[in-house]
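User: For my dataset I need records formatted as: sequence, then structure tokens, nothing else. Please produce one.
Assistant:
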Amino acid sequence: MTTWRHLLEGYPRIPCNEGEEGPVVLGAPMDWTTSYKPGTRFGPRSIRDAVCNLEFFSLVLGRPVEDLVVFNDLGDVSLPPGSVVESLERIRRVVEGVREDFGENIIVLGGEHLVSLPVIETLHNDIDILIVVDAHLDQRDEYLGNKLSHATVMRRVFEKTGIPIIYIGARAISPEEYDYAVKHGNKIKLYMPHVLRYSDKMKEIADIINNKKIYLSIDMDGLDPGYAPGVSNPEPIGITSYQLIELLKIINEHGDLIAADIVEVNPLGDINDVTSLLAAKMLVEITAILMSKKTR
């Protein structure tokens, strides 16, 4: 049995629609390897502050979900500032304990994208495929001399688990990453923003994920900065919020979503909380998908 509850701060928590029957929500307020605009450590609190100011209507399910969406928010994991390895280990232990006590339906709020690594590692036996919404591949072998970085997280995930990855919105790719993706093209699929407007590409994604257990990782910089300006590494010409909703519809109709993370929200660079609000909307939609599975 994993000892883990002492690693939780227990706050902040979502102050509405609380209940143990919902998926577990965890905050991972870490931005120790951020290389451009620091501030994602404040993302979990900002998303929580935003979510209860939204109407709980699901565009994915097409109905009000006030009576469906419930958050089992356990607060933030207590992370030692600047210590990457210890922080990742604490996240791993908490996720392992949560899985033992509550099951696999977990939503992690970041924090930089590196926080996804221990979550996916811990749940990898429950996952058939990863869907990663991101402007970047995060497939560098190292970045600025570091093997553990927001820019290397999916390389470490792929090396350690071998889980196939579908990238949605990728458009900022280094030569090293491009070559690596081509080399592993049987398991790494790229869907750049401009191809998502074609129905055959969306059908292709639906076919790939059909009846697969899915982990969804949403790096908010996968969206165009016009929709999500408050991120640590903004990249022009991204996907729209509508395309993200269409992706969630495909996941709900064809796949089996088991867990997710929403990362790289940086309130210090946001404008009128629009990025936090969009991330909060994704939290509502993901929770609605997970909760609706229990009633099918």
